[in-house]
Design goal:
By secondary structure, this protein is mostly helical. It contains 13 helices and five strands. Bound molecules: tryptophan. Tryptophan binds next to strand 1 and helix 7.
Length: 335
């Protein structure tokens, strides 16, 4: 973070399920490309994850695992801030304050809240409802300029902007109003089993997603089982979601255009194409898995990365939070 003039990027992934090929293509791969041109903060957003019940032993392990996978995917943890959200208490503090500048009506309109409360009808907790306010705090705390998010988070980002504008309107300029940074449309990876819905890292059906830690035999098996139709044509067409999704994956990894892919597999069938997709994935994941296998053993290094990340993040967060305290009218802290 030496160069203060670089724009600030914040993004995070919830430590639930496992990091999928969808997260990798839709988020992490882009983060890696952005990291040299921006001041980046990449957080494992553990506070968000407990809006749905988590097993403590698994959560702790998964949090470290996610952070290591960020690094294994090529995020440079020394030039960027890579940390656990819960290690920077200012997220929760700002979140409380922003709660008081967010309306029930706004939160009730969030489609993710509606989805999640129908999925977890036995645990519609207040955290699930105010989840987008915590996300706004994540972003606004660092005077973030750009937030790389997928389509499903657009509404939350819009709310973060509204909260920032509202607060600035009442108290004068306090927060940078963040912009979204949407990956190309092609980068939206769908479930292998239900290609009309997004590849989900919490999908109970393991065949629906590929974890970035899936070894070659699992990749081959899952791609072979991926749902396609029966007409055996490798061509992007409306309504042919299964094959379209495989083409998207192949294109995202090989950087070939749809036309090039269609030409490459002209006259060939799904069997050949699926093998090519599986091989491309295996090759892409191989170096990530090698780095993961090495890093996960190096506890001291991992600890150093996330401790240092959180310390610097805290110092940035404190600046914003004390500005907010002054604006709101809290007495200056003398210690
Ligand atoms: N809500 C995001 C998701 O589920 C994760 C997230 C939390 C996030 N805080 C954020 C993403 C801040 C971007 C910026 O995908």
């Amino acid at each position: 973070m030496e160069n203060e003039k670089k724009k600030v990027i914040f993004s995070g992934i919830q430590p639930t399920g496992c990091i999928t090929l969808g997260n990798y293509i839709g988020a992490l791969k882009n983060w890696v490309e952005l990291q040299n041109d921006y001041n980046c903060l990449f957080s494992v957003v553990d506070l968000h994850s407990i809006t749905v019940r988590q097993d403590p032993v698994q959560l702790r392990k998964r949090c470290v695992d996610f952070l290591v996978q960020y690094l294994a995917c090529g995020i440079n943890g020394e030039d960027n801030l890579v940390f656990f959200q819960s290690h920077v208490p200012q997220h929760a503090e700002l979140s409380w304050i922003l709660n008081c500048y967010t309306y029930m009506g706004e939160l009730s309109r969030m489609t993710q809240f509606k989805d999640k409360s129908s999925k977890h009808a036995d645990n519609i907790n207040a955290g699930l409802f105010t989840y987008p306010v915590l996300m706004a705090a994540d972003i606004l705390l660092y005077q973030t300029d750009l937030v790389p998010v997928g389509n499903d988070q657009k509404q939350h980002l819009e709310l973060a902007r509204d909260i920032a504008i509202r607060f600035n309107g009442i108290y004068g300029d306090t927060f940078t109003v963040p912009e979204g940074f949407m990956p190309k449309a092609g980068a939206r990876i769908m479930s292998l089993q239900e290609p009309t819905s997004k590849m989900s890292k919490s999908d109970p059906n393991e065949n629906g997603f590929i974890s970035i830690l899936d070894r070659p035999d699992a990749v081959v098996r899952k791609i072979k089982r991926a749902v396609t139709d029966s007409d055996n044509l490798i061509k992007v067409r409306e309504g042919h979601d299964g094959i379209n999704n495989l083409i998207t994956i192949y294109s995202a990894i090989t950087k070939k255009s749809n036309e090039e892919i269609e030409a490459e597999f002209d006259g060939k069938g799904y069997g050949d194409f699926k093998m090519a997709v599986a091989e491309a994935i295996i090759e892409e994941l191989k170096p990530i898995q090698q780095r993961y296998d090495e890093l996960i053993k190096d506890k001291a290094y991992i600890e150093q990365i996330y401790t240092n990340g959180a310390k610097i993040a805290q110092s940035l967060a404190r600046r914003t939070l004390s500005k907010v305290h002054r604006r709101v009218g809290f007495v200056d802290r003398k210690f």
